[in-house]
Design goal:
single chain, 434 Repressor (Amino-terminal Domain), Endonuclease, Chain A, Transcriptional regulator, Lambda_DNA-bd_dom_sf
Length: 276
């Protein structure tokens, strides 16, 4: 006797609604999970977990579902809502503003900023920070982080300015191969029409932002907000005066950092020092 499908609760969240709609359209098309797996190139087991809201859909799946079922963007719309629900509540408001930003400026003292992380680097970071977490939980976090990067492919994308401490280049996650690929990505982004990456060398000494990560976002109407992040908490700053203070600290840090060209050279030097 076949196992009874898990009951769906589409009223609970966009993630549950995504799974319910996916099952409904699949059954309406008289398609099994195996058959859908062949069409969308996602494993049967993963599709089953997505239907029951136990797993987050990968970023490539919504468009493939819309194409398979002829649903005219419904799954892509649901995905945009569902992808926000995996993040902690204090982060959701920041994500909404990030999606509206025309300029994102970020200082990161310890790790590569999430918007430009490779999938393997993100996975290694999550494993280190949550060593007891189940593999499925880690993969959901990785999927959520990768989904944030979609805004960099928007038309037009926001301008992105990153200042990373030299420690980011030296502190490895996932081993030499993972770090080499991650550093290569940073070097590629050092100076493009929409991205700038600058490295703050150790010899620049202390500064006002040394205590944590800072993200500054300029919205389409010119308004500015700031988001500060520590190990497990984040604080959204919208007071004009406080944001101006953080902007001033960031601008001073940028003046002390290496140029994009010299930053790319230092990044490639760090790559060459990695063991083969």
């Amino acid at each position: 006797m076949a196992a009874r499908p898990r009951e769906l609760t589409p009223d609970r969240s966009a993630r549950h609604l995504f799974g319910a709609k996916m099952r409904a359209h699949r059954e309406r098309a008289d398609t099994s999970l195996e058959g859908l797996s062949d069409i969308v190139n996602v494993s049967r087991s993963h599709l089953a977990r997505i239907e029951t809201a136990e797993a987050m859909p990968p970023p490539s799946l919504p468009a493939r579902l819309d194409a398979a079922f002829g649903t005219d963007g419904i799954f892509e719309e649901l995905y945009r809502l569902a992808s926000r629900e995996i993040h902690p509540d204090q982060f959701r408001r920041q994500m909404e503003l990030e999606a509206r930003a025309r300029l994102i400026e970020e200082y990161s003292p310890q790790i590569v900023p999430g918007l430009v992380q490779t999938e393997d680097y993100a996975r290694a970071q999550f494993v280190v920070s949550s060593p007891k977490a189940a593999t499925d939980a880690i993969e959901d976090l990785v999927t959520a982080r990768m989904s944030r990067q979609a805004l960099l492919k928007a038309d037009p994308p926001p301008d992105l300015s990153l200042i990373i401490d030299e420690a980011v280049l030296r502190r490895g996650f996932g081993g030499p191969a993972v770090m080499r690929a991650q550093l290569a990505r940073l070097a590629e982004l050092a100076l493009t029409p929409t991205t700038v990456v600058q490295v703050l060398p150790f010899d620049r000494g202390g500064h006002a932002l040394v205590g944590g990560t800072l993200r500054l976002m300029t919205l389409e109407d010119g308004a500015r907000v700031a988001y500060e992040e520590s190990i497990s908490t984040g604080t959204l700053l919208e007071d004009i005066g406080i944001v101006a203070e953080r902007q001033r600290a960031y601008d001073l840090l940028r003046a002390c950092a290496l140029s994009p060209g010299d930053s790319a050279a230092l990044i490639r030097s760090a790559m060459e020092e990695l063991p083969t």
